[in-house]
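Comment on both lines for my students:
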Amino acid sequence: MTESASPRCALIVEILPLSPELPDSEAQDILERALRRAQLACEPLRGHVQAQGSHRLYVLFSSCDAAISAVGAIFERIDDLPPPAGRPVQARIGLHHGAQASPSAKPLLTDRVPVPVASGSPAVREPFYTAAQIVDRAQPGEALASRAVARAAKQGAGYCIASAQSASLFQITRHFTGGTQTMPTRLELRYQDLVFHIDDHHPILLLGRERGNDIVINNTRTSRQHARVEWRKGGFVLTDHSTNGTYVLTEGGSAVARKITHDTTELVGSGLLGCGWSPTDGSQPAIFYRIDDNGSGSE
């Protein structure tokens, strides 16, 4: 990654200790799955992972708005993990933008920040030193941000809004509350017996073979991180990241599915999606999608 001297927003997500009743191998597997889900939540928002510790993920964003939006996506994906030993997997998050809030923090935190971060350029490492202090102050299930993040972010951007907690720290709420940006429509996707929606509280869906995606497709023709569908600029957009492409068959349109490869297309009306194969060949179950103009959908 090419480094820039411009200030960026550092996000640290920490997965909190799991139940001591879990076998070590099972606890490690759950921990890795939780961190992987956090990474998948950040990628569509252009979050670049700088390092991963035993319980922490260090992600750098070019804007505070993107980092704030990632907070809700991270919590949502981790909350969806089955609770091991009857106890939910919990995380906490810290964010900071720009230089260190306190230069004296560096010696204290050098042993807590991974080498790839500590040895990076000032634009990379300095935000993480303060973010590490902030995440230590967060409660389970809480995300805290510095005043620098609150000043740099545009209130109402994304679906997670910073609200003042103290003179120096701001809490990130986990749900969209900006009334003027409410989606006028909702996208419903059905895959086998599962139903998914893209709406105000879940504006991005990830499709792929790897665990941690919203729609997991167990097929070798599907890439691990195959595609994403999101609300963007007044419409629902599909972006393909795969090797074999994503096929889109729109109801009432051409009888031949369009193949999208490393490109973006807008979804309209209703139709079928195939991740690595055409929905018309009948060899694999397709994903049905429908845009509901009333935002109510069918349950």
Remarks:
- Residues 103-111, 155-159, 175-181, 295-299 have pLDDT under 50 and may be disordered.
- The chain has two domains: 9-172, 183-292.
- The CA atoms of residues 108 and 170 lie 23 Å apart.
